[in-house]
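Support reply, case 0932

Customer input (verbatim):
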Amino acid sequence: MMKSKSFVVLFVQLAIGSLSCAGPCPPNHQACIHAVALNDACNAGNLKACVAGADTQFNMIGIRNREAFLVRACELGDLESCYGAAQSLAPSYQLEYGERISRGSRQEEATPLYLRLCEGGRASACGSAARLVSAIDLHKARALLARGCELGARDACYELGMALVSGALGPVDEDAAGGYLRAACEGARDARKKWVEKQCEHVLFLRSVGIGSSTPQDEPPQTVPRCDEDEREVACRFDRSLAERTPGIQKIRGLLVTTGHFPTVIYAGARDLAVGTVVKIRSFSSGSIGSSIVVEGPIVAMSPHRLRIADRGPNMKFNYEADTWVVIEAPQGH
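Our regenerated output:
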């Protein structure tokens, strides 16, 4: 039992940090001897040994030790190892735009890896790199998304297009947004992923009001969430709310593009709105039946297809995801 514990301690020390050997292996322990040999070869610059060591350490000890071998393999030029290390340190799904990165954090360690991947042609890494740098360099974040879009990452095209619509990564530029939004949906009919379908519904809606299209349509296409089996909880509530008639109130479909104290909505089909009009913005969650998030406030800025309100609700913040379908409720004939 004692020998087994010392063996585990040895392996923990082997791969953390500099990958240095912590001491001799137990007599005739072939697995340990093999791991030490891989460790030494990896330190000496043998790429195959680093990749093999990552697999060995992952199986024998755990994921933190695997990272050290992957980072070394990445330094030696193996992009696949860069990706494995980056995903282990800071998984893509955990990254947010505008999030400050603490010095010495795992996200800080992952940043150069994602940057190297994007520069090396790994399209899916460009969005992650953009998120990691967005809090300190908006121009760099936009350039990384543009790089990802050029490499064929549809989500990077969509995120950059929406950022140019919303102003999330710098000045609003609807003309420039159009090309990225169109690229986001090229060939989308062949893609059956739900997130692709939702993104393209958003793009079609934006084009219907003139964003990304030279000729806005008089009536927007039926691109609001479809009330089907997979979307029943949210989409059906949206459909019902939009269709429900309330005396003196007009219901307007919209796409939320920014949140915070001054939420911004791209809208279609509204009549008689003006700065100062008090409106409600209603969004729907996937919680209990009938649950919705509502903010209310005066319009503080607007254009033919964009409005911004000052949230004066009790929480003073519309804390919901951007790129979300909403229903705007405004006085009729204001």
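We compared this against your earlier run and they match. Two observations from our side: The radius of gyration is 26 Å. The chain has a mean pLDDT of 78. Please reopen the case if you see a mismatch on your end.
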